[in-house]
Amino acid sequence: MIRFISSILAILFVGNALAQTPPTIRFGRGFAAEEQLWLMSVRKDLTPNQGKAYNLNQILFQANPERFQAFLAGELDGGTAPGLAVIFARAQGVDMKIVASICLEASGKGIFTTQYMVKDDGPIKSVKDLKGGTIAVVGIKTATDLWARAGLINAGLVPDKDTKVVPMGFPVIGDAVRTGKVSAGTFVEPFYSAEMAKGGLRTLFTAVDSVGYEHELLDIFFGEKFLKSNPEAVRAFLSDYVAVTKYYLANTEQAKSDLHKAGFVRTPLPAYLKTSDWKRTPDGRVNVDSLKKLAVFMHDKLQWLEKPVNVDSMVDQSYLPR
Amino acid sequence: MKRLPPLILIACILLAWEAVSRSGLWNPLLFPPLEKISRELVLFFTRPESIMEAFVSLQRAFAGFALAAAFGIAIGMLMGRSARIAALLDPLFSGTYAVPKLALFPIFIFVFGIGSLSKVALVFLECLYPIVIVTSQGARGVSRVLLWSAANMGASRAAALRRVVIPAAAPFIFAGLRIALPIALIVVIITEMVSSADGLGYLVIYSLSSLKTDRMLAVVVVIAALGWLLDRALVMLRDRLVYWEKLETYYV
Q1: ipTM of the complex
Q2: Are residues B49 and B19 in the same domain?
């Protein structure tokens, strides 16, 4: 009898404990420009809701297609993705929504925007001179591809016809430009700072120049089902996210040091501390208008979308703290 | 009748795919139904630019494969018939066979440029190994009785090579070529996926980046069909040239 009662109590205890376990957010992350998100795993002391309202499991992915495939396979609840990648996904009917902004391509003092550079002493003085040449981007149908094509179109060139656009890994683009294997290449931090330190390259245009306006670079997305079934967990997560973003912006050097120490960043610390950063909004609010403009550009000018995408329906900022 | 079981197996795989696609267990974007893939396949063959992409990939694969065949057969024959050359080259080939040459692709880009040449060079390198190794085994294994008979009949070394060694090694040479041919196609597709603005590999990555899995799978079907056709063509050529030894394998 005593054994029976103790078994019932044990079951009740375990059941109660399980009921109190907060949901785990399986979160697909990338390897660049997501500092405040990484900090949520490195500095849990900055995230009061973590462990109480949600648990966070960040999983590293090298590229967007793999991250989206994992999401489609039900292995992820959410993640980070460039706005245009979510536009692609929504065009294919993927049930995901952008809930917050991570960083933007913007210009201004101390703000980094993706650079397209050429050889300093080379023949290319303007984008028009890229006719007959090759421009290196980091992947097909990525943001770097979009900006390259936008830059070429602005200069009256036809991408692929007048100028080839080829994918190449960030680490090799610098040498590819220097050795003339490609006419121009895409540079982000920390590769941009490293190449500038070496000298011999100069900026031809930037991501902001190419489209002509400040726009979303990286965002946080969640699956719609997860949002509906775990709204409180997402709210708590975004509340912590906004708090960590504010901390990051106010204590960038300390935050970067912590991330470096935790192994999230491999760049030598002094170089990492010197690099300029993308624009991050402290409240995590998404620049929806810029996504709309990008979606129109992708449809009208690049023919990357078969039909227009309703951007309003793919953004839901109601989970962000008011 | 002999071809029926493999066809049944393929039909079973297709049925299983369709069942998975329609089950709702997985997202149809990951497992698109056969109807969607077939539609993309029809689109592929009706678009001249898609045919051009296939042509570009085949050109690259053939160029690298042909170079590897020419050099590989020559090196393999030398290694098979000369102990000195074998002693010199065998450690190099056997020691570096397992190296994934694809890892060298960034270096190839710097040496040969981002266009076709770097891809052709990598195809050449990947295909060279199986051709050299299998050819050298064939050349080494030529029956001494045949060689002695040729010598007794007054054949010169060149004549013995031409009329005894090469024909005796021919089944091995074709075995090496048959191993290398799909490698050529695989390497071309992968290199085009890594860094290219054209070719079937580019189409694969382009479709994947747009989450158009049905289109990507249609390209994969085209690649598989090309691989099968090339293999059939090579087997036919082999059966014509090596008519005294019919290829009897369960997979032909």
Answers
A1: 0.78
A2: no
